[in-house]
Specification:
The protein is built from six helices and seven strands; from the N terminus they run E-H-E-H-E-H-E-H-E-H-E-E-H. By secondary structure, it is an alpha/beta fold. The protein has one domain: Formyl transferase, N-terminal domain (Rossmann fold). The structure holds glycinamide ribonucleotide.
Length: 193
């Protein structure tokens, strides 16, 4: 069976990254080989250490550099997983990278996506609009923020008196439940190709 190598890109707490690492820890065909962050203070670096995964801190300009893209290709990364990664993926990386790139967004795209729409800003906007539901969108990444082909959406209800933190928590629970199994399905597609 073809080995599928993953790189997780994350900018913050990395709780999704942690779930993914746990999920694949005993998998013999799918391996997380790199954690990439643009934030030297990101807790995801601590998680990388705990799981003994090599981590790399990069700047925005590195993302589109030939050396960085070559490094990903040389390590035979098949899938880049954006798990709370806040920089836009430049077209150089999309075009030069050998594999696929997927993202998780904490709302039901195409609503509440685009530049500046990340983390609590998304949940705040959902609350301000008095939405009765929100959810998650897992999608392929293209040059435009949050516009690639949708792979999976899951919904959750919002009560009138839910705070932004409660909405964030509900969305995180969906992410923990669905992100890793969805990644696994995509890896199986890659294995069968
Ligand atoms: C997640 O909720 C993810 O959907 C969101 O950032 C959070 C990261 O949490 N991503 C975006 O908003 C991207 N636009 P985590 O660091 O604890 O996994």
């Amino acid at each position: 069976m073809k080995m599928v190598n993953l790189a997780i890109f994350a900018s913050g707490a990395g709780s999704n990254a942690k779930k993914i690492l746990e999920y694949f820890s005993n998998n013999t065909g799918i391996e997380v080989v790199k954690i990439i962050t643009n934030n030297p203070d990101a807790y995801v670096l601590e998680i990388a250490k705990q799981f003994n995964i090599e981590s790399i801190i990069i700047s925005k300009s590195v993302l589109k550099s030939e050396d960085f893209i070559k490094m990903l290709n040389d390590h035979k990364i098949d899938l880049i997983v954006l798990a709370g990664f806040l920089l836009k993926i430049p077209k150089e990386l999309i075009e030069g990278f050998r594999g696929d790139i997927i993202n998780i967004h904490p709302a039901l795209l195409p609503k509440y996506g685009g530049k500046g729409m990340y983390g609590m800003h998304v949940h705040q906007a959902v609350k301000d609009a008095n939405e009765i539901e929100t959810g998650i969108t897992i999608h392929y990444v293209n040059e435009n923020y949050d516009e690639g082909k949708v792979i999976l959406q899951e919904h959750v209800n919002i009560q009138n008196n839910d705070t932004i933190e409660m909405i964030a928590n509900k969305v995180h629970q969906l992410e923990y439940q669905y992100f890793a199994p969805t990644i696994e399905k995509i890896c199986k597609l890659i294995q069968n190709n």
